[in-house]
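Entry 14. Two folds queued back to back today. First construct below, sequence then structure tokens.
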Amino acid sequence: KNLASIPPSKARYGLQDLQDWAARRGVKIRGPYGGTKEKLSKFPVNSSKVCRGAFLAMEKGVMLRYSWLVFRTYWSDGEDISDASVLERIAKQAGLDPQEFMRYVESSEAKDLLRANTEECIARGAFGSPTF
């Protein structure tokens, strides 16, 4: 749904709810959805590589750490998670080998896995594969 088509009262409530949950969890959410004046470096962002990397993080047993780092890096710190240097840093902080990570996210194996996972989610009526 286009944000402009959301009734203003619902949009205000949604933004407030997002900020309330962020405060409860101790995280900062930058705009456009976070309601802060601090901007994201890029919106929308191409998250394909981040999503593909999630499969490697699952395989290596660091998915929770990886997901948290991706979320914080984009929504709290406002960095571009499609940038290779940012991805390498996230991988390293998550306990993954950055070079292996970058090779994996560019591989046909990872692309096929994300595509299949996304198609399965759509067929089941879900969204946000593989991390949401």
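Second construct, same run, same settings:
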Amino acid sequence: IQAKFFSFTMDSIQKLFFGNEVDTMADGKTDPYATAFDNAHRYMLKCVLKTVILQVLTVTLLPWPFGTLQVGGNAANGLIMATYLHFDQDYQGFKKNVAYLHKLTEEYIRKIRKDPSMETRKDMIANFLNS
């Protein structure tokens, strides 16, 4: 049932944001955008759960540039965390999927901009571009 909820959510996002009718719930096909989103989320969770102790240690015990620099609510990874993430397969998988999502989103936006009926479209991207 979780797969059906995910399909419904991603079908809705595609329709509302980009005006795309993917309908993965009806035909059982996979959508590349949904797959990349799911993979990015999975890799991010695995990476965070694996590195939480290292993150805490680099924030509390190591000075910058080795440890994490906390400024307000923002954090900049120090050398130890950056090196770890550079070689971590889950982090690399996360970055790869996020890059693919950016690429697909840019393609969708280019397609919407070229659409002659953009003025009458009701999706969120077209509404934003028309404002």
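Quick look at the second one. Strands lie at 69-71, 74-76. The radius of gyration is 19 Å.
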